[in-house]
Amino acid sequence: MSEKGVPLVEPHLLDLYRELRNVTVPAEKLQTGPVAPEIMENWESGIPMLYCHPPQIEVENFFEVLEEISGILKQYHPDRSEDVDRILAALPAGAEARSKAVAGVLRRDGEWLSDFVSEQDLPEEMVGFMVSLTLRPFLRHFSAQLRESLGLESWRKRFCPVCGGHANFSRLSRENGARTLYCSLCETEWPFARIACAFCNEKDQKKFRFFTVDETERYRVNLCESCKGYIKTIDEGKTPFDEKIELFWDDVKTVHLDLLAMREGYENKIAEIPAYGEEVKN
Ligand SMILES: [Zn+2]
Ligand SMILES: [Zn+2]
């Protein structure tokens, strides 16, 4: 892991994410199965793998991971311990309800989550945070199993080929300046147009601007005036030649850029689920 050139991040945030990322899912607890040709056709038509070839997740393992993540959150945010405990206590107890909860969370349409929050009167943001952190190790594992067999070069869409999420980071390659998008939920990276919005597909260069705060210009924040979305970008050409870049850490280490972008009125679109149908028609 590289931690060069990042003055603004609190050390405890890196420690927190290091611990969270150490939470893994044993291989036998998440079954992906072979991708049949008809599934691959669906994927090629623009349906992310999570929807055309969902993984089999062991329900109880999901709750074990949720408990583990919750323990880490409480350790780093003792002020939120009460909320975390209240959320854990409100989780469904029966086998059927637990299985429905996992299926609902995996669909990522927000329906299960909003019902759970309103029925139990829970803090929505915290529930969303816990659920998304719990999904990460499963989706990371799912992506690692699949992405070698996917022709990512041909994907070039505004959402993740594996989990369907929006990107929250992008990279300009050192070699030729080509751009890739990165999904922090499942850690998949795929090619995308250099001049286009990763959220609304705006292509008019006049609608874009970016800002940078560090002297090296290693990071920039791309802003779109059409949808008010922003995305953080690393320009590899501005990084030391021998540095091995891990976008996961560049994302964590640049939370100050998220704060700046949001303060300027731009939005992180990562919680939005894109409309796949529309994209397929494009
Ligand atoms: Zn993803
Ligand atoms: Zn846009």
Q: How would you describe what is shown here?
A:
The chain has 11 helices and 8 strands. The protein is of the alpha+beta class and 282 residues long. It folds into 2 domains: 11-149, no CATH class; 152-281, FdhE-like domain (FdhE-like fold, Alpha-Beta Complex), CATH 3.90.1670.10. Helices cover 42% and strands 12% of the residues. Helix 1 (11-21) packs antiparallel against helix 4 (59-76), helix 4 packs antiparallel against helix 5 (81-90) and helix 4 crosses helix 8. A 6-stranded mixed sheet has the order 5-4-3-8-7-6. A two-stranded antiparallel ribbon has the order 1-2. Bound molecules: zinc ion (2 copies). One zinc ion binds next to loops.
Summarize the SSE layout with pairings.
Elements: H1 11-21, E1 30-31, H2 37-44, H3 49-52, E2 56-57, H4 59-76, H5 81-90, H6 95-107, H7 111-120, H8 124-146, E3 169-172, E4 179-183, E5 188-192, E6 208-211, E7 219-224, E8 230-235, H9 247-252, H10 255-263, H11 276-281
Bound molecules: zinc ion (2 copies).
One zinc ion binds at residues 197, 199-200, 202, 224, 226-227, 229.
